[in-house]
Design goal:
Elements (H helix, E strand, L loop, with lengths): L3 H28 L7 H6 L18 H14 L1 H21 L2 H12 L4 E4 L15 E5 L2 E12 L6 E7 L9 E7 L5 E6 L10 E12 L3 E2 L5 H37 L1 E2 L2 E2 L4 H29 L5 H26 L1 H4 L6 H8 L9 H15 L4
Parallel strand pairs: 1-4
Antiparallel strand pairs: 2-3, 3-7, 4-5, 5-8, 6-7, 9-10
Bound molecules: flavin-adenine dinucleotide.
Length: 381
């Protein structure tokens, strides 16, 4: 059972999401439009500042509260959920964890104030195999010179800065990667066209291209050659937020299915009077609750400083597969009307949720992470 402070926080975020986010969610999807009108309200609610310490202008809430925010936002709008998740977990967190004091002072207050950060790890030839990065940053005079491309970057069109990984040698046998903070306004930083996606259409996804991008030495994030480790640690936290997105989307699908099943009459009675429909709803609710407990426990582990890599991979794997099943089940409960765009939002959720099985490592990669951790520790629990 959640503590009172988390229950009250959830109520506050839920009320905000219903008032501000839910009314525009369908339009953002239909028009494939970024959530511009909600940037100020989201900022005022502190949702871009969740993890950032107060001394840099952040809210510094605990991981569980942050995860509840992503869950509740995704319950009404997956696009808002992924925008929050990418900014907080992949943008702010690595700067907090690995940044110098100057980097924290320079970037975190802006980020906490609603200027978005992005995370550039994926490349056309380095997806699941993120260590296969081809982007290169070489030392030249008083700076690094970066060349390469990043793909599928969340909020790439909006972010004022991106945390981008690159090799720091052109030796093909040297796989070491380093992370850099690069700014949108610098010469040589170009944003590709916004991708036309199946779901999460209110979130911008695009390529980033770096062409002789000059990076000051002070914008190296973490140690040289430690960028892959930085990315893996970042993704441990990020996977909790993708799990939370899945949880929210699945919960949203269940909310819609339950209400519809109680209202829709066939054969002279509500369809929910049929045991077959009741069983389906019960399975949806049970799996979602199991995913919720897994994720919440992993949040507590993270804040307690306990290793949680395996748990975060399990959370993302389980929650995203549960949410995909739940979204499909909701469509079944709704019948033909669920297949339409508009009257009910189950169709949008069904399209949005697939990303949770792909982003920040596919389900196959999560299974590898879990199995490798068991083999390394020879501990099954
Ligand atoms: C909407 C969206 C937003 C994203 N946002 C970001 C972002 O902000 N930053 C960022 O860096 N990236 C982002 N990504 C990229 C995402 O992290 C990658 O798409 C993901 O890691 C998978 O890489 P890939 O698409 O290249 O698939 P591939 O690696 O080409 O995989 C293709 C298929 O092969 C399977 N596969 C690959 N290797 C193995 C293996 N060893 N064993 C079994 N199966 C395997 C995969 O599971 C998958 O099913 C985003 C993607 C999307 C769609």
């Amino acid at each position: 059972m959640l503590e009172k402070k988390h229950l009250e926080f959830r109520e506050k975020i839920r009320a905000f999401c219903l008032e501000k986010i839910a009314p525009v969610a369908a339009t953002l999807d239909e028009e494939q439009r970024f959530l511009e009108e909600n940037m100020v309200p989201l900022t005022e609610m502190g949702l871009f500042a969740c993890l950032v310490p107060e001394k840099y202008g952040g809210r510094e809430i605990d991981t569980l509260s942050y995860i509840i925010s992503v869950e509740e936002a995704s319950r009404v709008c997956g696009s808002t959920g992924i925008t929050l998740a990418a900014h907080n977990s992949l943008g702010c967190y690595p700067i907090m964890k690995f940044g110098t004091e100057e980097q924290k002072q320079k970037y975190l207050p802006r980020a906490a104030n609603g200027e978005l950060l992005a995370f550039g790890l994926s490349e056309p030839d380095a997806g699941s195999d993120a260590g296969g990065t081809r982007t290169v940053a070489l030392k030249k005079d008083d700076h690094w010179l970066m060349n390469g491309s990043k793909c599928w970057i969340t909020s790439a069109t909006r972010a004022f800065a991106t945390l981008a990984t690159a090799k720091t040698t052109d030796d093909p046998n040297d796989k070491a990667i380093t992370c850099f903070i690069v700014e949108k306004d610098w010469d040589g930083y170009a944003v590709g066209k916004k991708e036309n996606k199946l779901g999460l259409r209110g979130s911008d996804t695009a390529f980033l291209h770096f062409d002789d991008l000059k990076i000051p030495f002070e914008n190296q994030l973490g140690e040289i050659g430690e960028g892959f480790k930085l990315a893996l640690i970042t993704l441990d936290g990020g996977r909790l937020s993708i799990g939370a997105m899945a949880l929210g989307l699945g919960q949203g699908a269940l909310d819609i299915a339950l209400k519809y099943a109680a209202e829709r009459h066939q054969f002279g009675k509500p369809i929910v009077a049929n045991q077959g429909i009741q069983h389906r709803l019960a399975d949806m609710a049970t799996e979602i609750q199991a995913a919720r407990l897994m994720i919440y426990e992993a949040c507590l582990m993270k804040d307690a400083g306990v290793p949680f890599s395996r748990q975060s991979a399990m959370c993302k794997l389980y929650a995203s597969e549960v949410a995909t099943r739940t979204a499909a089940s909701a469509l079944t409960v709704l019948g033909a009307i669920g297949y339409l765009t508009g009257p009910y939002e189950a169709e949008r959720i069904w399209r949005d949720v697939k990303l949770c099985e792909i982003g920040e490592g596919t389900s196959e990669i999560q299974r590898l992470v879990i199995a490798r951790d068991m083999l390394k520790t020879m501990k099954t629990v």
